[in-house]
Specification:
heterodimer, A: 499 residues, alpha/beta, FAD/NAD(P)-binding domain, 3 domains, 6-stranded mixed beta sheet, globular, B: 141 residues, alpha+beta, Jelly Rolls, 4-stranded antiparallel beta sheet, 5 helices, 8 strands
């Protein structure tokens, strides 16, 4: 560590450069150091750790839970499933830091509590970051990349962009530019007695609508896509922000949720006129409003990466990624944090990973660090040898309790490799798509998944002599997938591998 | 190399499958379903793995592979995965990206409501399936 006041990581040559100091950047920098990648520089344009949690959510309460008391000890691996907001430490003193800061008014931390926990993780885990250093542009060179920054040039073999979805994004609706974005929403009081029209029906739109319910005269949320109540029932949104939708469904409260394409937003002296056309109904509607809020989401600040060849999805808002969170089009560029939601994995039964929130992407970040350490820098992790009689028990325990499998359903898997010469080894946590798509010899994987009816089920995948088979096991009312029935079925299915 | 797909609504508007939809309807489809991109060589649909989706190619190319043997090539506007979804069985083939590939992804449980709420898509799909069937059934002379 440098002298007091000295900024770490001056411009120069590094193995890896991590850009960003939100939870994704902190987790990947922490995990790279522990995976043996020593020459790793972390840079950030911010002045302190925390990323989006230095400011958002606007109304200051998260939608993901942390339960300070749980049936398992705080700081254990199993506890991570009860604490969706702490980053992952390799030692107990770096684990489960969010509950230390919670006042327990809710089991959802306040924004400031989350920010404090992230800063504590950086301090305890010695995650050094060069703050106030802004990445400006990127070049591909023979052996890697050059990142030009406000402090000078960084040369590296691999870069990890943990950029967050931080740039306000607006769809190309004529006139919408005149309306403030969600990111610029003021205190609820300034909407007192007003007719408010919110463009959007996702997290930020419902969050703002909920905050304005006690203040606004009328509230309209509109976007082309209908609210899918079946999906909403499983969404963390329901925890806090469903009141506006509830009022719309029951009718007559001045709150409306409308499926409409917004044709244009016209500004006039008295406010706004919004012209819309129905998407799930036929016809047109014109709304008069005192205030319009564009709750139309965010995009990753990708700067010149698309020009470099980095493919994007979602109208250019997110970088497209492989199952190991590498750019699909520019090898050597990896991603961490909530932009990893663009890597959808198998998307079985339409279920996307939880990579848009901390409880999902913290595992992606740890795996991407291991992947870079192994495949780029040859720092192979130790694989724990297993006895054949222990395999079914290990897999059943993982199905019942592994926080990675439960946080990232049908996306992360526990893998065991069976090599006739080298024996049986625990491969640890691996993206399920990676396991399914790459034949690295006889092996099996378990994942926790939803079935077509929405029930949580254990899944076993067996690769034997080049053929992959999938076995969906029955659900259990308490998800107790480590009972004797499950162990016996796992053992039976693994028979071919174990002989 | 093409680094980015065009605006999804514009792309859908140019595909025959969605040829009868109005602009607001196209917007609703584009906002409801996600766009996904795959690296060259990455699998999109997996033989014998359940829970797959219906895919429409927005940009790029793919190949259909059964037991390791290539059977067909797919390109912009082509779709796949519907047989598996409609018959509720695991796909009988792999679909692998031959280039960087962009697709619109319609999860299985959303396909029936989509086809019932926008029958013109169902009709267009049926036309295309009929052509595929006729091609498959053509007697060698």
């Amino acid at each position: 560590m440098g002298a007091v006041g000295e900024r770490p990581f001056p411009p120069g040559d590094y193995d890896v450069v991590v850009v960003g100091s939100g939870p994704g950047g902190l987790q990947v920098a922490y995990s790279l150091a522990r995976a043996g990648v020593d020459r790793c520089a972390a840079i950030s344009r911010d002045d302190r750790p925390g990323g989006m949690f230095r400011r958002f959510p606007v109304y200051q309460r998260l939608i993901s839970w942390t339960k300070p008391d749980a049936p398992v000890p705080r700081g254990s691996r199993e506890y991570e499933w009860y604490d969706h907001n702490s980053l992952l430490g390799d030692v107990e003193s770096h684990q489960a830091l969010t509950p230390l800061f919670m006042d327990r008014e809710f089991d959802l931390p306040a924004r400031a509590e989350m920010e404090a926990a992230l800063a504590e993780f950086a301090a305890r885990g010695d995650v050094q970051v060069r703050y106030g250093c802004e990445w400006e542009s990127t070049r591909i060179v023979d052996d890697g990349f050059v990142l030009a920054t406000s402090d000078g040039e960084y040369r590296c073999r691999v870069c990890v962009f943990a950029l967050g979805m931080t740039e306000a994004w607006r769809p190309p609706i004529p006139g919408l530019d005149a309306a403030p974005h969600y990111a610029d929403t003021g205190s609820p009081k300034q909407y007192e007695g007003k007719r408010v029209f919110i463009v959007g029906k996702r997290n930020s739109a419902f969050e703002v609508a909920q905050g304005l319910l006690p203040w606004a005269k009328t509230l309209v949320l509109a976007s082309p896509r209908p609210v899918d109540t079946a999906v909403l029932a499983f969404s963390p949104l329901r925890l806090r922000y469903l009141q506006p939708f509830d009022e719309h469904i029951r009718g007559g409260s001045g709150s409306h949720v409308v499926d409409a394409s917004i044709e244009r937003v016209e500004r006039h002296d008295g406010g706004y006129r919004i012209r819309t056309r129905g998407t799930t109904w036929t016809g047109e509607l014109t709304f008069e409003a005192d205030e319009v809020i564009a709750a139309t989401g965010f995009r990753a600040p990708l700067r010149d990466l698309p020009a470099l060849g980095v493919a994007t999805v979602n109208d250019g808002r997110l970088p497209a990624q492989t199952p190991y969170w590498e750019s699909v089009s520019v090898p050597g560029i990896f991603f961490a944090g909530n932009v990893t939601q663009a890597s959808s994995g198998l998307r079985k039964h339409g279920v996307s990973p939880s990579s848009g929130s901390v409880h999902g992407f913290r595992y992606n970040a740890r795996l991407v660090a291991q992947r870079i350490a192994e495949t780029v820098f040859g720092k192979r992790r130790e694989r724990r040898p297993l006895e054949r009689d222990d395999v079914a028990g290990l897999l059943a325990g993982e199905l019942a309790r592994a926080p990675e499998l439960w946080s990232q359903k049908a996306h992360l898997a526990r893998v065991v490799a069976f090599d006739p010469a080298a024996g049986i080894h625990d491969e640890g946590i691996v993206p399920l798509a990676q396991f399914v798509d790459h034949d690295d010899g006889d092996a099996c994987a378990v994942a926790v998944e939803y079935d077509a009816g929405g029930a949580i089920v254990p899944a076993l995948y067996v690769r034997h002599q080049g053929r992959l088979s999938e076995h969906i096991l029955p659900p259990h009312p308490l998800h107790a997938f480590d009972g004797d029935d499950y162990r016996e079925e796992l053992a039976a299915r693994l028979n071919g591998l174990l002989v | 190399m093409e680094a980015q797909s065009a605006n999804v609504v514009e792309t859908l508007a140019s595909l025959s499958l969605f040829g009868d939809l109005s602009y607001p309807e196209l917007e609703a489809v584009a906002h409801t379903f996600e766009e996904e991109a795959f690296a060259q060589g990455q699998r999109v649909l997996r033989q014998d793995v359940s829970g797959g989706s219906f895919y429409v190619i927005l940009s790029g190319e793919a190949r259909v592979v059964i037991d390791g043997e290539e059977r067909a090539a797919l390109t912009r506007g082509d779709f796949f995965g519907e047989i598996s979804v409609l018959t509720d069985t695991a796909p009988a083939a792999d679909v692998v990206a031959s280039t960087v590939l962009w697709c619109l992804v319609v999860p299985a449980h959303d396909l029936k409501p989509l086809l019932l709420s926008r029958p013109s898509i169902a009709y267009r799909m049926l036309q295309i399936e009929a052509r595929r069937l006729r091609r498959a059934n053509t007697w060698e002379r």
